[in-house]
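Known limitations

Files may contain more than one protein. Parsers should not assume a single record per file. Below, a two-record file is shown to illustrate correct handling: read the sequence, read the token line, then continue until end of file.
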Amino acid sequence: MRVAAACFLAAALTATAVPGAELWIGGATTSITPDKPVPLDGHRGLRMSNKVESPVTATALALESREGEKVLDQAILVSCDLVAIRDGITEKLREKVKPRLPDFDVNKLVFSATHTHNAPVTLEGRYTLPESGDFMRPSEFVEFFAEQVAGAVAESWQKRRVGKAGWGQGQAVVAQNRRAVYADGSAAMYGATNTEKFRAIEGYEDHNLEVLFFWDEKDRLIATAINVACPSQEAEGGLAIHADFWHPVRETLRERYGKDLLVLGWPGAGGDQTSRPMYGKAADARMRKLRGLTRLEEVARRIVNGWEEAYEAARKDIRGDAVLEHRVQQIALPHRKVTEAEAAEARTQAAKFADVPAQRWNFRWHQGVVDRYEAQQAGTEGDYNMELHALRLGDVAIATNPFELYTDYGVQIKARSPAVQTFVIQLTCGSGGYLASERAVRGGGYGAVIQSSRVGPEGGQVLVNRSLEAIGELWKK
């Protein structure tokens, strides 16, 4: 029995013992920082930028698997310093890329957002904007952004050369569940914990740091992708354009490993997470003061330390023949049902904001529930359709989704995946809102109420199962 178990374990740990192929790798980064003030995304009220604290960028990583002259599969993965990939953005980017890369399947272009709350708005009508002034409207920024990103995508593809890949896991305490639970069973995002009514932090935290590494033929590190199960909201607020903790992470890694190192920031399942502590704040502040660090620098320090932990081991297992497979699916998820009581309350709240231009965000937030309820009653709502990307790179699986996905779902996918290491990337190729866990919906609060989510726990389980089915297909060979 022990011999059989050992053989099984050896087989599981050498999942890439399938015929490999030559891996071609290319990359490019570009600024998406506007040269004028812009409305900033991520808050309920309008914020117009007044400075650039750190540049916002987009980084493209091109991958192609070949056997001789035969192309086996392709992918271009793009990480963008935005709050989300709003509806229509993916299609617009693909339209711009298609004529530039006629030999590439644009359906295998994958766009994800880091979820910084200090990036430009990309959706017209989200806020009531000034009628005049020297600023860039969302539609203008989208045109600028799309042109910059399309150029970086084309450049990454043109630069691809034979290379090597590796993967590793480190640990970094970045994600901290941001939902406080109280004695009456209710929950609140960023709720107070220094009260006698406080009972628990609601959910799990994933501190694993999933990392991909890419080298050229001479074993020089050229790119890395870092999957953190937390949105980048440390610098949230204010009027500055800001890439959040990804900026000091990139700068530190480039200082240590080469000024041209490409760094992709991938947010893992972290719809219920924050990098800011919910308790122990005084101790946290004291330790930062002793280290001479801001909170932004402290988070970056943890990520870089975890990255280096993974790199130290991963560079002992550099693969030149890692299999690349990429599958794209359109999947349908059931909408979260709006109750009659929820619709009535939303209608009352929407009426309060309907004629107040400064409350445009709040009006849309509530009115959207009313519209959904009416479509539901009329039988015209249908399903929520999303694009799912499942990739295999050697022993690694990657699964994407467009949501602010609660960590419970990401943990399910990782735990049940047949891969040695699994990356879950949220906020990809769409913007589906929060997808809360069953226990979060019971507790209520922002991020779990009907206004916050189009898809509920039932759809969340469908997403988990379909993601695992897609990953499983890549491990059948």
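...continuing to the second record:
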Amino acid sequence: DVRSMVRDALDAFFRSDKALAQEVVMRDDGIDAYKNKIFRELAAIMKNEPTSVERALDLILIARNLERLGDHATNIAEDVIFIASGEDIRHRKFEKVSGN
């Protein structure tokens, strides 16, 4: 979950733990996929139940903000990887960058 990503990113930073930072980066796609799933499901609910629009929009904003927190945790983790190894993995897929 996002809370554990933030905690792990900060732990990786304080300990200069490249391996933990890599784990955080790899979890970002899962958070993005979960947010997209929530968006799709809530959009379908809003189409079928117009009275639910206000509540559904609130949930969409919450999901979006949680995903952004995950992005910030990922940015911290990417910085840890750079500090620990000199490897800049920003804006690239992690699996393609590191053979680890």
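Parsers that stop after the first record will miss the second one. For reference, the second record is described as follows. The helical segments are 2-15, 18-48, 53-85, 94-97.
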